[in-house]
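Duplicate of #3305? Posting structure anyway:
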């Protein structure tokens, strides 16, 4: 079986998710190649596996977004003419930034007509997807969870060593947000809530690259005057992720809206408890991993809630590491390959 992956390995430095999936799929004998437009003409391919068709709706120019999203639809149609089955892993139900709402409303029905199979990362994700698109119920689908990141990032720094490098004391009570900074991730509100927390020993780490200069200014403005906030507004290299996550007692992800969260699994992979909104599939993640590792909240963050989260993170008795067996990449690759095989057999593709 040949799978055209869109993307496969070229985004690995930004997000290793797809590279981990496809390396493990290669290990079980599946031929995975990186998407190129010409490959939709490859009649030896069985599957075109697409992950983020909404990525182009984050482009700053309207015509760029329109051109690329239109090209996506054209390429998918050509793939299907060549008997390549199109599978979409549903990471999100819509674009995060919502820049071109009217364009998106036109795009999604056309895109979904090109889809032969769906992979959902959670049962909640499938339910929410079908509530939005009930006409897709007959389309073959599978629930295959997001993989963990254990062993992917260097992780040799102890808590004390990470704190010493950042100028933090052993007895500081530390919250952290680590990852790319985008408007929907709601980080300025996290900082505002933290500033309501009247705890001189509390600290908040914000580490990541802002999507825009305007967002960077907003973060700097709301943090100004509070020396308890450590802002590192730049790209965080792979080898430095451990510095900011291991220094924390707890990772907080204050998203406005979210369906699934690789960032939550990243924190858990570093054996750090995580606080997330009761939104999308994150309640399901709490039930799967355990309430001692994943805490959810409803409504808006405030200082009182952050104080409770810090106390929960520091005082709760939990195992040294969370159990992430369900998120093992080998099992995920096998389940994905099995779904592709079933889909091609169903469609009569020789593969």
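Output from current build:
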């Amino acid at each position: 079986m040949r799978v055209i992956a869109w993307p496969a390995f070229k985004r690995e430095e930004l997000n290793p998710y797809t590279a981990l999936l496809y390396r493990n799929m290669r290990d079980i004998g599946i031929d995975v190649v990186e998407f190129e437009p010409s490959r939709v003409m490859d009649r030896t391919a069985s599957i075109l596996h697409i992950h983020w068709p909404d990525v182009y709706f984050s482009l700053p120019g309207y015509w760029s977004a329109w051109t690329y999203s239109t090209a996506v639809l054209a390429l998918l149609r050509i793939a299907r003419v060549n008997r390549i089955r199109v599978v979409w892993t549903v990471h999100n139900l819509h674009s995060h930034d919502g820049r071109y709402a009217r364009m998106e409303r036109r795009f999604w029905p056309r895109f979904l007509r090109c889809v032969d199979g769906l992979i959902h990362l959670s049962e909640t994700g499938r339910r929410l997807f079908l509530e939005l698109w009930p006409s897709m119920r007959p389309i073959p689908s599978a629930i295959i969870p997001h993989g963990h990141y254990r062993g992917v990032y260097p992780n040799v720094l102890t808590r004390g060593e990470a704190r010493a490098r950042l100028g933090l004391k052993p007895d500081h009570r530390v919250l952290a947000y680590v990852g790319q900074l985008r408007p929907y991730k709601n980080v300025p509100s996290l900082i505002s809530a933290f500033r309501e927390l009247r705890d001189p020993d509390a600290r908040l780490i914000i580490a990541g690259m802002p999507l825009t200069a305007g967002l960077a200014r907003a973060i700097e403005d709301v943090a100004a005057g509070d020396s308890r906030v450590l802002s590192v507004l730049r790209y965080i290299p792979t080898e430095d992720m451990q510095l900011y996550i291991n220094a924390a007692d707890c990772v907080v992800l204050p998203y406005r809206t979210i369906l699934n969260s690789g960032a939550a699994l990243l924190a858990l992979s570093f054996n750090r408890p995580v606080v997330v909104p009761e939104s999308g599939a994150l309640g399901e993640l709490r039930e799967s991993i355990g309430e001692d590792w994943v805490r959810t909240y409803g409504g808006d963050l405030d200082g009182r809630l952050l104080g409770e989260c810090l106390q929960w993170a520091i005082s709760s008795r939990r195992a040294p590491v969370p159990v992430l067996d369900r998120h093992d990449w080998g099992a995920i690759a096998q389940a994905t390959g099995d779904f592709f095989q079933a889909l091609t057999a169903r469609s009569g593709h020789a593969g």
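Confirmed duplicate; merging threads. The first helix runs from residue 17 to 27. The mean pLDDT is 95.
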